[in-house]
Records
---
Amino acid sequence: MIFIVISSFTFLSCQDRKALFEEKESRLPNIVLIYADDLGYGDVGAYGATEISTPNIDKLAKGGVQFSNGYASSATCSPSRYALLTGVYPWRNKNAKILSGTAPLLIDTTQMTLPKMLIEEGYYTGIVGKWHLGLGDGNVDWNQHISPGPNEVGFDYAYIMAATQDRVPTVYIENGLVVGLDPSDPIEVNYHKNFPGEPTGKDNPEMLKMKWHHGHNSSIVNGIPRIGYMKGGESAKWVDEDMADTFLAQAQKYIADHKGGPFFLYYALQQPHVPRTPHPRFEGKSGMGPRGDVIVEADWCIGELINTLKNEGLLENTLIILSSDNGPVLNDGYYDDAVEKLGSHTPSGPFRGGKYSLYEAGTRVPFVTYWKGTIQPTSSKALISQVDLLSSIASLVGSKIRGEDSNDLLEVLLGKSEQGREELILEATTRTALRKGDWILIPPYDGPTFNPNTNIESGNSDEYQLFNLLDDIGEQNNLAETNKNKLDEMIAAFERIRGNYSDNIEKLELE
Ligand code: NG6
Ligand code: CA
């Protein structure tokens, strides 16, 4: 099967890559992209958290460039990951929304991606962790080789979960094959109807070890009710509490196997997304319940990964980038004490909103670059987005490829310049806003202004909202009425960039 994967691969062979690599005058750095799921700006010590301890992330932030104006492209996962890998704004693709576990591959196989660009420069490319960019053509047989997926958009190694930890199928997939699958117990997945006789979170509360609050009442796996229905595949089902260790071990193995380099490792952590299931050795460690505990766990994993790079002698030749796919949420559908045990911790930091929100906390996230001996420790106020990584990394490795919406901010990434973006479109559940300089424009949108389930403001309003972040970081004073000139300037800039993509906007559904 490995043979099939490699032979169907249209990219460079190992020998070609080695030759290309040897041609390069200087040694290209390895690149490790650590991407957390729903980690808030205020969840990290270096970004001001005092109630939770993240010493390993802090070491990267304090020893590298700590960005205070670093953004995810979207306030939800799949759109942010789409932009991260393609260098294209997610609102240009009408399918770039939170995907179900059976959604088809969101990235066109002919599209340029960050890993494809790196393969052309002689890199090995691997992903370990959360994918959530769709698989196959929308009609996947989970018992056969699953394609197209990460292997077809630039990763020559992939060890992934298909969607999210709260969505079926709850199995790991290695290069298109479900890990540990017993062919006599085939997997079936359906997002519309249950399989006859299978228990659900809705009908079988007695089987649950974690209770659902909203959504999450379909199939039960390991006592946790999920989104979507799944049958079979018993031997392949993951153990939630072991997921962090499983992904870490795979990421470490990838590094050890490719230490000859250059390699690109996309380490996509599942924490602190729901369901929050720390390994027992992290239970109670934060005093904040499972959400805090899995942040401590994620920080530990990051420390272990750095140790691996160090022990392999790679730390001086590896650019590490750390960020999160969107802002934080406390109650995202399970009763797990995230709200009750929060205490004085503020996951959104000084910002308004959270995950799903057009306000700052939806997309302004921890954003750090670290490269021992090459990047000098500094903090940066430059405006930078994850959509810029493709062009910036291309510039680093000497590729001429650039992404459609991706700015070459290599000097900013390396901490040598504070000349970031002038303007940036922010997205949240298909709605968009503009940041330009220190100003934010949120156009009027229909739909609820507040989601009582997640306790997060959507950013919707009947009126234009205009904020000046310089003296109003919490977006409290709407200046749209009092500063008409600025409002007009911002609307013109917004319309210039957004064009008529407003066709993609959907009525906001409560998450
Ligand atoms: C929402 C889920 C939420 C989470 C989110 C995706 C419900 C009610 N809510 O639909 O729990 O899974 O999708 O999160 O089902 S993301 O970080 O992957 O975008
Ligand atoms: Ca997320």
---
Amino acid sequence: MGKIKRIGVLTSGGDAPGMNAAIRAVTRTAIYNNLEVIGIRHGYSGLINANFKPMKAYSVSDTIQRGGTILKTARCMEFKTPEGRKTAYENLRAAEIDGVVVIGGDGTFNGARIFNEEWDIPFVGIPGTIDNDIYGTDYTIGYDTALNTVVQCVDKIRDTASAHNRMFFVEVMGAEAGHIALYSGIASGAEAIIIPELKGETDQLKALFEDGTKRKKSSNIIIVAEGDEEGGAMGLANRVKADFPDYDIRVSILGHLQRGGSPTAIDRVNASRLGNAAVEALLDGQKSVMVGLQNDEIVLVPFRKAVKLHKDVNRSLIDIIDILNV
Ligand code: F6P
């Protein structure tokens, strides 16, 4: 590949608050460096259908505070095929795009990794998913906003739970990881947190409820990660109800409201830093890497590692859940 003159940018997979701030940072850093920028719409589908639109500095005005993604997103099956990726390459070549910034999660990076094994147009990734489940970065864009959304919801649920002396099972997103559940559970003072990274917690629930009854707790909030082996909040609530028929139990599944809303300041700042770093990485000749944040410093992590290695939850937080619930 020669000198980079024109870059593409796309968002792929589940949207996350702060993606627009990242698109803005990519666009403006590129323009600052005299590069042309092409917005690729609807994720990898836009690469395959040549759904391209030139981006100017003003194209990203008034977007830093908006949730969703101005470029739209998709989960594209065709990009998983060699034929789909070949068409994408031909479209990029025809549009004279010399490098691409992809904003998304592990599925997005896996597609980019395979593409860069086959074709010579460099891809650089920015971690954007509410799940915070990408190895090699302490933080993914959208996670902080989603956490704050969950905490606001649980605070409201706590009011009604206390008023009725009820127990609530609140299900949160996170795919197969428990980051959102663990952090939001600590932040909202949950009585228990059920995450895929821990096994057999439901046995401990029984003891917890008996204790709570002794202490005359007026409410109990159990945060359940959607990916937990127990099968979600509804299944768990039904089993507890069978064991404790006198409990007044309700279930609340927060769902996609966790994905929307205006990004927090943290998400905007980190998205701005990562967007800037992704363009710098392309200019430095990098390919097949994700830009991430470790200890508040920008790092480059090969896609190969980011998608294959597992990011564990913060185990020190698990240790304090029970202590904070004495
Ligand atoms: O990866 C983000 C995420 O919101 C997960 O937490 C959730 O499991 C999934 O996407 C939902 O995907 P969809 O919007 O396609 O239903």
